[in-house]
Design a protein that fits this description.
By secondary structure, the protein is an alpha/beta fold. It is built from 5 helices and 5 strands; from the N terminus they run E-H-E-H-E-H-E-E-H-H. The chain has a 5-stranded mixed sheet with strand order 1-2-5-4-3, covered by helices on one side.
């Protein structure tokens, strides 16, 4: 799930989202605004609070299994948007998630990975390591976690 506008679930969508998560589903959500408190962030976080509780969405520790499910990372890799894309040099230090029965059911990023992953490799040439590898980690974690 990705976006930059208002996130507003119907009662049925809220119920389905919760059931999907509680039954073992995994949802990766990417805020394409690359901000801290924009419309997508505020509205998505409010929806998660209404479904899973106000304190359910928490920062992932840098030693979370997600960061070593295939490739090894010391925490969330930075993106070109953070380094120079929007000119704000705003680096988001962590990803957040919702643990359900001891496993990550919702992974929430405000790093805008999705937009970066679909860019030409030359747009990522200044990165120390291509963060597209992190997409592999997310897929492996979702399938095995």
């Amino acid at each position: 799930m990705a976006g930059h506008k208002l996130v507003e679930f119907s009662a049925d969508e809220r119920r389905n989202f919760e059931q999907y998560g509680r039954r073992g589903g995994f949802v990766f959500v990417d805020d394409c605004n690359h901000d801290i408190d924009g419309l997508f962030a505020r509205s998505f976080e409010a929806e998660m609070a209404s479904i899973f509780g106000a304190k359910a969405l928490r920062p992932l520790r840098n030693d979370h299994p997600l960061f070593s499910s295939f490739f090894t990372f010391d925490g969330p890799p930075t993106t070109g948007f953070e380094l120079n894309g929007w000119g704000d040099d705003l680096v988001h230090e962590y990803l957040r998630g919702i643990e359900i029965d001891g496993r990550l059911g919702v992974l929430y990023s405000n790093k805008d990975y999705g937009c970066e992953w679909d860019y030409d490799w030359r747009n990522k040439r200044w990165l120390a390591e291509d963060n597209t590898k992190f997409a592999v980690n997310i897929a492996i974690y979702a399938l095995t976690g």
